Automatic annotation (TrEMBL):
<protein>
    <recommendedName>
        <fullName>CHK kinase-like domain-containing protein</fullName>
    </recommendedName>
</protein>
<feature type="domain" description="CHK kinase-like">
    <location>
        <begin position="138"/>
        <end position="333"/>
    </location>
</feature>
<dbReference type="Pfam" id="PF02958">
    <property type="entry name" value="EcKL"/>
</dbReference>
<dbReference type="InterPro" id="IPR015897">
    <property type="entry name" value="CHK_kinase-like"/>
</dbReference>
<dbReference type="InterPro" id="IPR011009">
    <property type="entry name" value="Kinase-like_dom_sf"/>
</dbReference>
<dbReference type="InterPro" id="IPR004119">
    <property type="entry name" value="EcKL"/>
</dbReference>
Length: 420
C-alpha cells in the first residue's frame, strides 16, 4: 500500500491537520493550512537510540493559495513498544520538549533584556512538539537547509572546531549563571521542568548492566594499547559498578554551581557551518539529556568525547582558558559578576573534582562513535516488554587500533592529570 502524504497522523497520531496548520501559521506568522508532506532523505541510523528520525518537508498554503514548506528533522518515539520501554523514551522526549517549550524561551527572554554583544543563538527552532507518553514527537528546523552539517563522528574535532564549540557552550552556560543571579525565583521555577534521565540513583538497575559492559570495553582498550602500565591499574580501579554512583553524584548533587547543561555531548549533536573550509558557526541539537549541574560536566565531556588526543595533550590548559574567559565575559555582559558567581579558582577546582564524569560518559559514547555506520546497532526488539539495555546494545570490544586509542588515551589523560 502506498503511503498517504496528505496526512501525518500515521507518522504520529498527535500530528493532526489542525495542529500542523497551527504550527505552520505560527512559523510563517500568517494563517496557513496544512497541505501535504514528503520525505527528503534518510537519516544516519546510528545517531539515535531512543527515537526514530525522519527528515521531511511539511507543506501548507496561505490565504492567497501560496504553497510554502518547512523542512524539519522529525523525531518520534519508537513505534516498537519494547524498544520504547527499554530506552524509557517517553522520559527523554518529555525532557527535551520541556527544554524547548519551557526552559529555552525563558533563557532567551532573559538574554533579550540584557542585549549581550554575542548572544547565544546556537540552536535550531522548534516547529512542533507534542507529548502523551506514547506517541511523542518533536520537529526541529532542519539545519542542513542553512548549510550546517556534522563532522565525521569517527574523528575528533580540530582546533577551529573546539574553539567554536567551547565558546558556544560558555555562552549557553552563562545564561544560567546570570539569570540565577538576577532572577533567582524565576530561574528556580524553570528547574521544575528538567529532570535527570541518565544518571540518577533510581536508574541504577536500568543502566548498571550496560555500564559494566562499557567498562569492560574501556578496560580492554587500555590493556591492549598500554599493557602492563599504570593506566591498566587505574582503569581497573575506575571502571567498576560502584562508579555509577559517582556519576550520579556529579549529575544530581552539583546544584550550587549548577547551570542548564546540554548533557548529550558527542559530535553527532554539533552541526557546523563552513566558509572557505573553516567552521564559522555551530548549532546544538538533541537536548533529551539536558540537566541542571555544574558546567564542568559538559566541558569535560566535550574534552573526552570530541577532541583528539594530540590537541588535548598540547592545548588542554588553553581549552580551559578559552571556555572560562568566554564564560566570564558573557556573564559580565549579561550584567553579573563572574568573580562572585563562578571564579576561575572554583572552575579549576571543579575540573579536578568532576572531570571523571567526562571520562565515564565517554565510555557510553566512544564505542558508538568509532563504530562504522554499516555496523550500527539494530534497535528493533521483539515483544512488548522492556529488556535489559545490555541485551540490546550488544556491542563488542573496539576492533580498530585507532578506535581503541581514542578510548585508551582518554584514560591516559585523566590519569596523568590526577583526575582518577
Amino acid at each position: 500500500m502506498s503511503e498517504d502524504f496528505s496526512t501525518l497522523v500515521h507518522v504520529s497520531p498527535l500530528m493532526t491537520t489542525e495542529r500542523i496548520s497551527k504550527a505552520l501559521t505560527k512559523w510563517f506568522n500568517e494563517e496557513h493550512t496544512f497541505s501535504h508532506w514528503e520525505y527528503v532523505k534518510e537519516m544516519d541510523k546510528g545517531n539515535a537510540h531512543c527515537s526514530d528520525l525522519l527528515r521531511i518537508r511539511i507543506y501548507g498554503v496561505n490565504l492567497n493559495a501560496d504553497l510554502r514548506f518547512v523542512q524539519v528533522v522529525l523525531k518520534r518515539i519508537p513505534k516498537n513498544i519494547a524498544r520504547r520501554l527499554t530506552c524509557r523514551s517517553d522520559e527523554f522526549f518529555r525532557n527535551e520538549i520541556n527544554f524547548y517549550e519551557k526552559i529555552l524561551p525563558e533563557l532567551l527572554a532573559f538574554q533579550s533584556k540584557r542585549q549581550p554583544k554575542h548572544p547565544f543563538d546556537n540552536f535550531m527552532k522548534l516547529f512542533f512538539a507534542h507529548s502523551d507518553g506514547k506517541d511523542d514527537v518533536v520537529c526541529i528546523e532542519d539545519a542542513s537547509v542553512k548549510e550546517f552539517k556534522n563532522t565525521p563522528r569517527q574523528k575528533g574535532i580540530d582546533t577551529e572546531h573546539y574553539n567554536l564549540t567551547l565558546k558556544t557552550f560558555a555562552r549557553f552556560h552563562a545564561l544560567s549563571f546570570a539569570m540565577k543571579d538576577q532572577e533567582p525565583e524565576k530561574f528556580e521555577k524553570l528547574l521544575n521542568n528538567i529532570h535527570e534521565v541518565y544518571f540518577d540513583k533510581h536508574l541504577c538497575d536500568w543502566y548498571l548492566g550496560l555500564w559494566n559492559r562499557l567498562s569492560d570495553i574501556a578496560i580492554d582498550a587500555v590493556e591492549k594499547e598500554f599493557p602492563d602500565s599504570v593506566y591498566v591499574q587505574k582503569i581497573r580501579e575506575f571502571a567498576v559498578p560502584d562508579r555509577y554512583q559517582d556519576m550520579v553524584e556529579a549529575a544530581t548533587r552539583t546544584t550550587e554551581t549548577g547551570v542548564i547543561c546540554h548533557g548529550d555531548i558527542w559530535t553527532c549533536n554539533f552541526l557546523y557551518k563552513y566558509l572557505d573550509g573553516h567552521p564559522v558557526d555551530i548549532k546544538m541539537i538533541d537536548f533529551q539529556i539536558a540537566r541542571f549541574a555544574t558546567p564542568v560536566l559538559d566541558v569535560s565531556t566535550i574534552i573526552y568525547n570530541c577532541i583528539t588526543h594530540d590537541l588535548r595533550e598540547n592545548y588542554y590548559d588553553q581549552m580551559l582558558e578559552i571556555y572560562y574567559d568566554t564564560l566570564a565575559n558573557q556573564i559580565r555582559d549579561l550584567g553579573s559578576d563572574p568573580d562572585k558567581l563562578y571564579p576561575w579558582k572554583l572552575f579549576q577546582t571543579e575540573i579536578k573534582k568532576y572531570s571523571y564524569f567526562g571520562l565515564g560518559y565517554s565510555f557510553d559514547s566512544m564505542p558508538f562513535l568509532v563504530l562504522p555506520e554499516e555496523e550500527a546497532i539494530d534497535m528493533e526488539i521483539e515483544g512488548d516488554k522492556a529488556v535489559n539495555l545490555k541485551d540490546v546494545w550488544k556491542i563488542g570490544n573496539i576492533k580498530t587500533k585507532d578506535g581503541r586509542l581514542r578510548e585508551a588515551n582518554n584514560v591516559k589523560h585523566c590519569v596523568d592529570k590526577g583526575y582518577i
